[in-house]
């Protein structure tokens, strides 16, 4: 069981604040707590019914923490909670913290001895056939509660896996039992959804790699995700897109709490100090609930009470030593020096033979550095910081607009692969987004199959992403005639084509309609009943990921994520090129200059956000299980 801890604060404190707390009206209060003796006395002095309830309490003494939190309730309410054995206001991020907290390392030699018989054999993958009781909550996809389709049709959306040993991984920097908890806070990216998603993956990866409790930012309005405000939800947290509750529960190495919980536990108890004055500092207006509020004052306050590194992904690579020992920090620095002496990082944009995923650290660093000349090392000084905060500041050019795998570097290759599997297997869209996409995919297949049952019995269709709207890269906004000309060699006349686009004037696509049977999301509105319209872009992505052939938009992070999803599927289905992470028969860009870039293995280079890279999905299942595990 992971320790996704929601922290409650009780007891007395010598530190007080004036003003308000969650609503910004009053400071922290410290109510009296029910002691064991008080409860025992009360129970013994009541009726036989209360005596029997006390016996239940004796059996379930692990609920003592719950009892203390109910000091301001009546005895009847407290006893009712004992009968139900659950808190009155359950928090999805809250669970019991592990008592032992022991972490032990499995050495490479030990692992090799345990798994000699499995060496070189392919990993058994089970995407959909396991019994529900044998699988984690995140492992499958069930659309019964989301309007369908049937599981047999939804199954094709699943590219993620359930790897039980991965759930036990913990960072070597994780706080041990009895040590103070360390936190990581962050600011979401200010761009469009896929920039926000990209930055979220990166900061989440940083938090896990650092072994810190990840503090989720308050719910707020996101750029271009505020359609129909007042009629549907438009203030979002990341749990509205990803299965964050289950994610935190099922991974031993991840602790996650809300900003409100963090502020109540650390700020309102006087544990945070202004780093310039050394004085205890409380949040603006003593507010702890910032959901739906203007968070600018909160951000400015966080900058003053946290360690805020200016890590710029285009200038440095975040490097994590194999342990907290000083020698491992020096090993990373010496590797960079050696690479610079030997001619610098790898400069090639295409490699015939990719660097093995289990290559030496210096070989992997040479490929992953790209043009960067520095490392941002998680050294001993930073490891000791109580709170690390990652800001998003366009003016200072501090922004996590980078793929997690292009920024995070691990001395231990096993941790590198674990992180890539974690993002594949857990950071996927929630069922409320997956299922509408699955319905459209199923409808497309049925339409294509009925149109040509003899030549297309599987109901194959092809997909495009055509970005118009506010796209800043004008040279990729080509005409429909050019799109048609650039893609006709790969398509069959009359084929069913699904186009994911932000172009409102569908007449723009008339040249394509002359040769293909073109469909848009608008043609499947009946499959989107009661779906938040702010999810439409993500649904479009998922539908586009299932086309037999896909044509994307260069520079677009929307297309980029489709490329990664298709990369995951290519490994699952053993498609042509999967060994090298290439997509030589299924992925094209609609612009001629970049049309075939996904057909060859490319190491990290250029502006990372332009595209996704094979390093994120190629051979990432190698040596599953060879990781630190928790003794929870």
UniProtKB/TrEMBL annotation:
Keyword terms: Carbohydrate metabolism, Fucose metabolism, Transferase
Gene3D superfamilies the record matches: 3.40.50.11340, 3.40.50.11350
GO BP of this protein: fucose metabolic process
Ranges of Low complexity composition bias in the record: 1-19
MF GO annotations: transferase activity
One Pfam family linked to the record: O-FucT
Top-rank lineage group of the source organism: Eukaryota
Compositional bias (Basic and acidic residues): 112-135
Region (Disordered): 1-32, 83-102, 110-142
Keyword Transferase (UniProt): yes
InterPro entries: GDP-Fuc_O-FucTrfase
Protein name per Swiss-Prot or TrEMBL: O-fucosyltransferase family protein
């Amino acid at each position: 069981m992971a320790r996704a801890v929601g922290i409650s604060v009780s007891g007395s404190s010598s530190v007080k604040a004036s003003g308000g707390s969650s609503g910004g009206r009053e400071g922290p209060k410290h109510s009296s707590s029910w002691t064991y003796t008080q409860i025992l006395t009360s129970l013994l002095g009541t009726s036989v019914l209360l005596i029997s309830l006390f016996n239940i309490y004796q059996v379930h003494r692990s609920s003592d923490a719950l009892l203390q939190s109910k000091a301001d309730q009546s005895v009847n309410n407290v006893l009712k909670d004992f009968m139900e054995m659950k808190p009155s206001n359950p928090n999805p991020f809250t669970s019991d913290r592990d008592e032992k907290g022991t972490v032990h390392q499995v050495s490479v030699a030990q692992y090799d001895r345990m798994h000699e018989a499995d060496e070189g054999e392919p990993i058994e993958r089970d995407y959909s056939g396991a019994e529900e009781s044998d699988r984690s909550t995140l492992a499958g996809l069930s659309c019964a509660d989301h309007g369908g389709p049937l599981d047999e049709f939804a199954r094709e959306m699943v590219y993620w896996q359930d790897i039980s040993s991965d759930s036990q991984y913990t960072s070597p920097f994780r706080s041990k039992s009895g040590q103070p908890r360390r936190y990581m806070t962050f600011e979401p990216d200010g761009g469009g959804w896929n920039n926000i998603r990209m930055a979220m993956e990166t900061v989440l990866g940083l938090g896990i790699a650092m072994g810190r409790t990840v503090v989720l930012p308050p719910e707020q309005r996101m750029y271009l995700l505020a359609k129909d405000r007042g009629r549907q939800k438009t203030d979002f947290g990341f749990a509205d897109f990803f299965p964050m509750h289950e994610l935190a529960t099922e991974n031993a190495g991840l602790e996650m709490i809300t900003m409100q919980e963090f502020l109540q536990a650390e700020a309102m108890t006087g544990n945070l100090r202004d780093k310039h004055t050394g004085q205890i500092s409380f949040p603006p207006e003593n507010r702890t609930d910032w959901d739906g509020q203007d968070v600018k004052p909160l951000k400015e306050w966080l900058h003053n009470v946290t360690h805020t590194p200016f890590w710029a992904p285009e200038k440095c690579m975040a490097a994590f030593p194999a342990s907290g020992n000083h020698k491992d920090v020096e090993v990373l620095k010496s590797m960079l020096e050696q690479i610079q002496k030997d001619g610098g990082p790898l400069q090639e944009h295409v490699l015939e033979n990719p660097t093995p995923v289990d290559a030496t650290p210096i070989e992997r660093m040479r490929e992953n550095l790209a043009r960067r000349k520095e490392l941002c090392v998680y050294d001993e000084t930073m490891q000791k910081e109580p709170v690390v905060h990652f800001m998003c500041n366009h003016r200072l050019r501090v922004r996590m607009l980078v793929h997690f795998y292009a920024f995070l570097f691990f001395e231990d290759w096993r941790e590198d692969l674990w992180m890539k599997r974690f993002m594949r297997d857990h950071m996927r869209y929630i069922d409320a987004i997956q299922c509408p996409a699955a319905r459209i995919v199923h409808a497309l297949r049925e339409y294509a199959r009925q149109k040509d049952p003899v030549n297309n019995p599987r109901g194959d269709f092809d997909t495009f992403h055509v970005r118009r709207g506010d796209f800043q890269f004008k040279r990729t906004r080509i005409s429909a005639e050019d799109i048609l000309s650039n893609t006709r060699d790969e398509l069959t006349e009359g084929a069913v084509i699904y186009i994911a686009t932000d172009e409102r004037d569908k007449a723009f696509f008339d040249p394509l309609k002359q040769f293909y049977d073109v469909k848009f999301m608008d043609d499947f509105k009946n499959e989107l009943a009661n779906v938040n319209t702010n999810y439409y872009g993500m649904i479009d992505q998922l539908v586009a990921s299932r086309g037999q052939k896909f044509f994307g938009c260069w520079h677009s992070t929307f297309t980029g994520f489709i490329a990664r999803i298709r990369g995951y599927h290519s490994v699952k289905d053993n498609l042509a090129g999967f060994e090298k992470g290439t997509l030589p028969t299924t992925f094209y860009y609609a612009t001629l200059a970049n049309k075939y870039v996904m057909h060859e293995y490319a190491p990290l280079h250029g502006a990372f956000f332009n595209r996704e890279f094979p390093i994120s999905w190629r051979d990432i299942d190698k040596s599953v299980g060879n990781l630190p595990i928790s003794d929870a």
